[in-house]
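Researcher: Good morning. I'm working through a list of sequences from a screen, and I'd like to move beyond sequence-only analysis. For each chain I'm collecting a predicted structure so we can compare shapes side by side. This is the next one on the list. No need for commentary yet; just the structure.
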Amino acid sequence: GPLKMDIDLWKEDATDDIRSVLKWELGDGGRLADIGPFIEDKMETLIDKSQGLFIYLETIIKFLVSVGGNLKTVNRILAQSSFPKAEENLDALYRAVVASASEMSETSREIVPLIIGFILASSKTEPLPPRAIHAFLPEMIHVPLTTVERILARMSPIFVETSQGIVVSHTSVLDFIAEMERCGESNWADPNEIERILAMGCFEIMEKG
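Model: Good morning. Structure tokens for this chain:
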């Protein structure tokens, strides 16, 4: 089954480190330098939302970079209600990342659940590169490889491209996409259907030689 997080993740409080890193990232030379002046006064809100989890900070920084520092996205995240549990705040951030990719186009809404399903299924075997993910999409979905690559780029805060293929950025992401209640029904694809699509794809590849 999918990897599970070490429960210590929720007990380790890195708030002081998070504050120091966020200050640096908002300053000259940091990844958020361009929007630093606009969100500096909201820094404590971000720190509170992280609830001491460094993975939250790293994910939100990567997310803001992936959307080009879009202030509308920043404000939407900051306006979200905080949950009492750190795990729920992290899930809400992961859902925001996925939603950002889904909202790119009507086609994206259709493809994102399949991509997530493929990444979850391949986590049990070996990672799939973007080209393979594109090749496994059902024939009725006619999109170029560049579309898949753009969607993956938007979800890069939680899905990372390595030399082997696409992997999750953290084991908490694997837990998140493994449960429909956490990932969200609109982002969910039935694992049995995903396995069927992958099996059919493998069969077609073998037939073509």
